[in-house]
Amino acid sequence: MINKNLDKLDKDNTFSLVNKKLKAFKIANPNKKVVSLGIGDVSKPICKPVIDAMHKAVDELADMKTFSGYGNYYGIEKLRDVIIKNDYKDFGFSIDEVYVSDGTKTDSTSILELFDKDAKILLGNPLYPIYKNGCLALNKNIEELPLNKDYKLSVPNKHFDIIYLCSPNNPIGNAYTYDELTRWIKYALKNKSVILFDNVYEPFISSKDVPHSIYEIKGAKKCAIEFRSFSKKASFTGLRCSYFIIPKQLDKNVNYYWKERTLNRFNGASYVAQAGAIATYSKQAKKIQKQNINEYKKNARFLKKSFIELGFEVIGGDDAPFMWLKIKEKSWKFFDFCLNKLNVVVIPGVIFGANGEYHVRISALGKLEDSKIAIERFKKYYEK
Ligand code: PLP
User: Fold this and answer.
1) Which of 69, 210, 237, 269 has the largest count of CB atoms under 10 Å?
2) Could you report the per-residue pLDDT of 58-92, keeping only the tens digit for each?
3) Nearest residue by C-alpha to atom 3 in ligand 1
């Protein structure tokens, strides 16, 4: 007896359809060079200090004196300690409030196991589709609300138990400000809701009015769980390692229940990946990682400026590696046009929800030289 909820997931508007169309195009046109502005993956390798730390960890596993088997289910203490000291140093968290895992894709929906089936969950539309699909697969009680004129989710005037906020946002590429998050925290405290705050794009924040953590907002420790990842920050998309904070101040002892759940459902992230994650906080690694992020940000600035010059309305791109382009056609039609006529990949907005129609997502995680080629092709077409 298959879980029939899995049939509720959107089968038509998926990243796999993007890949299928791309593959078919490449087979039919082997001589055409396709460039991608759709890439959600990183295009820079893991830096040497991190690689060296992982080589050392592998060697430790080869010797019974240093071998490490089943580890701490919640993450190696040293890693949780450096996470607090670097990313959360002003907030007074203890190691007991930090959980290490194998990716925010997993964490952002595993967390749903904590909550009752009747808990009312709020999602924005459009949004990173994984949250909704995770909710649907588990038959959760969801409602989607459209974004406001700033392409953000406004505080609703009715009750929700759980709210997904993604900031900096995928797919829009914008981020919530101190004022906006203060309104959300007030709402959550008043409604006794929990905010699931996906902050995986934190390293890309540069605007002064955007906080680097939701815990910068007063009261957030009582109502927010924050997720972060080494994926984009340190190119761990293939290696896999992430972390999140469940403050002990959260109502109903959420932290305690998460420990109970995890003891029974997870054996911890890989030892080697965690050794690499510790090394991402070394001085040299931080420097290289920062340079990489700056290069993605330079690419984002180039893409944003170019699309604006081409006459598009562009949202985001300042605090995230994504931007959201308004288009006149339906998003798959525009995708097909870009692929077939310009040999450029963009991501149809409808993949992120029905309200993403008439938009496409552009990513700056690729290479600047590819962005330049793509923009030249757009220019040639639009300036004809
Ligand atoms: N959250 C958001 C908003 C994302 O865009 C992504 C990846 O694209 C993830 C989470 C996944 O992160 P991880 O690689 O840590 O699973």
Assistant:
1) 269
2) 999 999 999 999 978 999 999 999 999 999 998 99
3) 170
Distance from the CA of 229 to the center of ligand 1, in angstroms? 7
Asked if residues 204 and 293 have their Cβ atoms less than 8 Å apart, the reply is yes
pLDDT score for 39: 82
C-alpha 216/C-alpha 233 separation (Å) is 20
Protein residues with CB under 6 Å of any ligand 1 atom: 40, 103-105, 128, 166, 170, 198, 200, 229, 231, 237, 242
Torsion of CA 175, 231, 322, 154, to 10 degrees: -30
Q: What is the pLDDT of residues 9-45, one digit of tens each?
A: 988 889 999 999 999 999 999 999 999 999 889 999 9
Q: If you take atom 11 of ligand 1, which residue's CA is the nearest one?
A: 105
